[in-house]
Structure formats: C-alpha cells, structure tokens
Amino acid sequence: MMAGTAVAQDRASLQTEKEKISYAIGLDVARSFQPVAKDVDFAAMQKGLDNALAGGKPLQSEEQAQATHAALQAALAARSGQRVPGQPPGSEPAVPARDQVGLLLGERMVGPSLAPMKDEIDAAVLMQAVRTALSGSGTALMTEQEAQQTLQGYLARKQGAVGDKNRTDGAAFLAKNRNEKGVLTTPSGLQYMVLREGSGPRPLASDTVRVNYEGKLLDGTVFDSSYQRGEPAEFGLNQVIAGWTEGLGLMPVGAKYRFWIPSELAYGTRGAPGGRIGPNSTLTFDVELLGILP
Questions:
Q1: Which of 153, 134, 159 is nearest to 26 (CA)?
Q2: Rounded to the nearest 10 degrees, how much is the dihedral formed by the CA atoms of 248, 278, 214, 234?
Q3: β-pairing, 208-217 with 222-225?
Q4: Which of 15, 130, 131, 238 is buried deepest, with most CB atoms within 10 A?
Q5: Mean pLDDT of 269-279
Q6: How far apart are CA 214 and CA 284, in angstroms?
Q7: Could you report how far apart the first and last alpha carbons of the chain are, in Å?
Q8: Catalytic residue IDs
Q9: Residue 184: how many CB atoms within 10 A of its CB?
Q10: CA-to-CA distance for 233 and 19, rounded, in angstroms?
C-alpha cells in the first residue's frame, strides 16, 4: 500500500467502537516510537503490520531485521551524545533505511503483539493515528486522555468477557471432575487426588515447606513449574493462595497430590499479575511435598 493511498483512506472522524479502539492503540504505539519518528517510512510500517496480522511470510529477513535494529540503536545513541562503539570520533553512524525501519516496527514489533486481537482492530485506522502522532501533521481525532479512557474501557470489557468464560468453563469442569474416580472434594470446593502416599507429618498453615510442583490452566498450558526451573521451591503456607494453604495441609511429607483449585481459592476475579492466569481461572497443580523446614 502506497503512502498516498493510505492517506486518502484516512477517516475524518471515528464512528465505530472498533475505529476508536484502533485509533487509541495507534496513539499508544506512536508514543513508544516517538524517538525514531523521523526514521520511519509509514507506508512500509503499515505494509509490515498488515502482513504480520495476516500471518504472511516475513517481508524482512532475520539478518535485515537485526542489521536495521543495530543501526537504529547506533543512530539513537549518537543523537543523545553517546559514543557508539567502533564509530570514529566526530563521525555519524549510518542512518538505517526508512523502509527497513518501517518493516521492522510493523512486522516484528507491533504486529506480533496485536495479532491476538487482529479481528478487533482496524489496522488502517491504527496507522492513521501513528502517522498523525509521529509526523506532526494533520489533526488528531482523539486526545491522549480520550485514548486512555478508550483503552481502559476496552481492556475492562475484554477482561470481563474472559472472566465470564473462565468462570463458566471452570464450574462445568469441576462439576464433572468431582465424579471422577479418586477425586475428593473438600467443603471449600477444593478438589484433589492422591498420586502418591506419604508417611511424614502434615504441615500447618504457619509452616514453611519445600515442594516440587507444576501448575496448569484447564487447557493444559503450564504457567509455572519448579521442575522446569530445575530446583524445588520454598515458601510459607501463609503466603500462598488459599487453595495451596488448604491443600498442602492435607499432605503428609513425601506425598504427591493433584489439586484442582476453583478461582475463588486461587487468584479470583483479578487473575494473577502478568496476565498468564486470567480472571476467574480454575487451576490444576501437581505438588510433591518434599519437607517442612524448621
């Protein structure tokens, strides 16, 4: 898509919620790339973004991307007065080709992060906001405050939809799972299965324990694992989610249990920081209780 074509298609106003969300995201993207504004070919950036969202074959090779990124970093360092390693004093580093910078930003930086929401955004409107903000030409269709409010509202709605689905899926899973052979359910709703018996003492809620464990979402995604890290974990049972405090209190040292923890005994409506565990998520843990620490 040529730059002139993209400009001709620019909206004079934002009519739909999708356009408003896209424009708000575009302003947020532009804020991140303000230092390299003069280095970007916007038509190439949109071409790269469109290709990434479509799942196309990369338009920029790995070697081109690495070389462009290195040249861009060198140029930014020189502009800020820093000495660039290997650059003769008083000389300016080579400026990367603007079309390559555009492809790097659109295809390798912006595209992958937006791919999960590709059906919810209009890439042309998003790029309109980027061009307007970074080029300093044209009139912005949304203030920064309006953009922030739009993004906050969008994220809240998206979080709510995810939470509703997780709650429904979790309730259905637990209702079926409680009837599976070997599954026990406590009054709180915690479900567990004994995978290996233990013969040691059981920890109190005030104890510190040493464990190996692996945590999964209901779809099987592993979000945390001491096995993968290659070493057991140690923590106080009064410092973890309620399902862990209760569940490990049932375990003798040496045992291995599987827990299914309802969201209200896990991370609740907010989910866990970092986004790996969404709101209202039911979690599965395999836990080995290795010891109780003094």
A1: 134
A2: -50
A3: antiparallel
A4: 130
A5: 91
A6: 8
A7: 67
A8: 213, 223-224, 241, 267, 285
A9: 12
A10: 47
Tokens representing residue 225 in the block: 């694992």
Q: 């070919």: which residue's tokens?
A: 41
d(CA 151, CA 165): 21
Q: Using H for helix, E for strand and C for coil, what is the string for the chain?
A: CCHHHHHHCCCCCCCCHHHHHHHHHHHHHHHHCHHHHHHCCHHHHHHHHHHHHHCCCCCCCHHHHHHHHHHHHHHHHHHCCCCCCCCCCCCCCCCCCHHHHHHHHHHHHHHHHHHHHHHHCCHHHHHHHHHHHHHCCCCCCCCHHHHHHHHHHHHHHHHHHHHHHHHHHHHHHHHHHCCCCCCEECCCCCEEEEEECCCCCCCCCCCEEEEEEEEEECCCCEEEEHHHHCCCEEEECCCCCHHHHHHHCCCCCCCEEEEEECHHHCCCCCCCCCCCCCCCCCEEEEEEEEEEEC
Q: Which residues 6+ apart lie within 8 Å of 100 measured at CB? A: 44, 60, 64, 68
pLDDT, tens digit, for every residue of 175-227? 999 999 999 999 999 999 999 999 999 999 999 999 999 999 999 999 999 99
Chain segment 146-158, per-residue pLDDT in tens: 999 999 999 899 9
